[in-house]
Write a structure and sequence with these properties.
With 393 residues, the chain is α/β, with parallel strands linked by helices. The protein contains 12 helices and 16 strands. It has helices at 7-18, 22-35, 43-67, 97-104, 152-161, 175-188, 224-233, 249-257, 277-288, 308-315, 344-351, 353-357, and strands at residues 85-91, 122-128, 131-137, 164-170, 191-192, 198-203, 211-219, 239-247, 261-262, 265-270, 294-296, 318-323, 336-339, 359-365, 374-376, 387-392. Strand 2 and strand 3 form a beta hairpin. It is globular and about 65 Å long. The chain starts with 6 loop residues before the first helix and ends with a strand. Bound molecules: guanosine-5'-triphosphate and magnesium ion.
Length: 393
């Protein structure tokens, strides 16, 4: 739905974007909101802004408390990434998020029938094959989390920061209702669990004093002129805007305020041991219709947990690449991890920037190749388990 913002609001938004000082930003958000008319078309936008303001407020609060020693350090919003992928574990209270971490990892978590026990994101490491997956328990989600209710700001910030999501539901309660709450809040926070048809990226740090629009795809209900007019009406005159896939004018307007982020997602349905769980699980599967992968587990009885690593690995589309030095006979035992579809160029980049500049060719050992090792170039698409030897000039 179009927001039809008046020019005053668009001007204010340019002021929001222009500052990085948290206090000033908060003030500019407030001024922006005052210029946004209250109607149905702007409801989503107003919610988003309020959420962003809640995050800044909490962050400022936190810093103040840390200064006077009330809270003792520790990252609150973001957990430093470790391992091959960071996955945020999201679910309503008491569904067994801490129990999952306790059963699978050696994270220090508190399992308790008391609701809202975990109030800060808790990191843990799950070893799967020879890769490490970082799972972060987030504070319980409720209706209103995306607007900053309870610890919602932390939950949403953790989810946006992660590479992927596990949505956990409890099979002793109605799992469809829980899933609907979770997906509703994620949507409000502009987090998508299914691959969007297109993508809009706005890089405002561009200093070329010009607006460049790069289109790799299709505009649905508009032409380049409309896009440019829209961007300029928001005083975006110096930026690189990349549009890929299928995109409409509404998508571009939304991206001006906040980009939707897609996160590969797995549903974990817990408490398979309780009475009625089986039929609740069937209802859930029927509702999801194969749109997201689902796994049923019981943390208490440790059922289904052994398959979780593989499910996460597949959902995240992780591939392991073993590099070999030309002088050595055996490849390294610890792989580099990339995402499915990655090329040799991506591998070279993740090893060292210099590798690309001096790249001559690579040899790849893989079962799928007719001739293995095969001599390949930077555009070669890698697959899980490939062994690669890079030769430089
Ligand atoms: N029957 C059964 N109970 C479980 C299972 N997993 C967890 N529980 C119980 O569910 C309650 C909540 O578990 P937690 O792991 O603390 O849940 P949580 O999602 O971390 O909860 P909060 O952090 O408080 O939001 C505890 O009493 C657990 O013993 C399970 O597989 N089956
Ligand atoms: Mg917990």
């Amino acid at each position: 739905m179009p927001t039809n913002l008046p020019p005053e609001a668009k001007n204010k938004w340019a002021e929001v974007e222009a500052t990085n000082d948290p206090k000033l930003k908060l003030q500019k958000y407030q001024e922006f909101l005052a210029e946004v008319p209250k109607h149905k078309g702007t409801m989503k936008l107003r919610g988003q802004i309020k959420r962003k303001m809640a995050i800044i407020r909490q962050d400022l609060d936190d810093k103040k408390q840390r200064r006077v020693g009330i809270r003792s350090g520790g990252p609150k919003f973001f957990i430093e990434k470790e391992g091959s992928a960071q996955i945020a574990l999201v679910g309503m209270t008491n569904v067994g998020k801490s129990s999952l971490l306790a059963a699978l990892t050696n994270a220090k978590v508190e399992v308790s029938p008391v609701p809202f026990t975990s109030r800060d994101p808790v990191p843990s490491i799950l070893d799967y094959k020879d890769v490490q997956l970082q799972i972060v328990e987030t504070p319980a989600i409720i209706e209103g989390s995306a607007d900053g209710k309870l610890w919602g700001s932390q939950t949403m910030a953790s989810a946006r920061n992660a590479d992927g999501l596990i949505l956990m539901v409890d099979l002793s309660e109605n799992p469809v209702a829980q899933l609907q709450v979770i997906l509703g809040e994620l949507e409000k926070a502009r987090i998508a669990t299914s691959k969007p048809k297109g993508k809009v990226e706005i890089d405002r740090k561009h200093t070329g004093a010009a607006l460049r629009i790069v289109l790799v795809g299709k505009l649905l209900d508009c032409n380049m002129r409309d896009v440019e007019d829209l961007l300029r009406s928001h005083r975006i005159n110096d930026a690189i805007v990349k549009i890929s896939g299928e995109i409409g004018l509404d998508d571009i307007e939304e991206a001006i305020y906040e980009t939707t982020m897609f996160k590969p997602t797995l549903i974990v349905a817990n408490k398979l041991d309780v009475q009625g769980a089986e039929s609740n699980f069937q209802n859930l599967c029927r509702h999801v219709q194969g749109k997201l992968p689902i796994i049923a587990v019981s943390c208490e009885q440790k059922r289904g947990l052994s398959e979780l690593g593989e499910k996460v690995f597949n959902t995240m589309e992780i591939i392991r690449i073993y590099t070999k030095e030309p002088s050595k006979r055996e490849p390294s035992s610890r792989p580099f991890t990339l995402r499915r579809g990655a090329t040799l160029q991506d591998l070279a980049k993740s090893i060292h920037g210099e590798f690309i500049k001096n790249f001559a060719y690579a040899r790849v050992w893989a079962k799928r190749l007719v001739f293995s090792p095969q001599k390949v170039g930077l555009t070669f698409i890698l697959e899980d388990g490939d062994v690669v030897e890079i030769h430089t000039k």
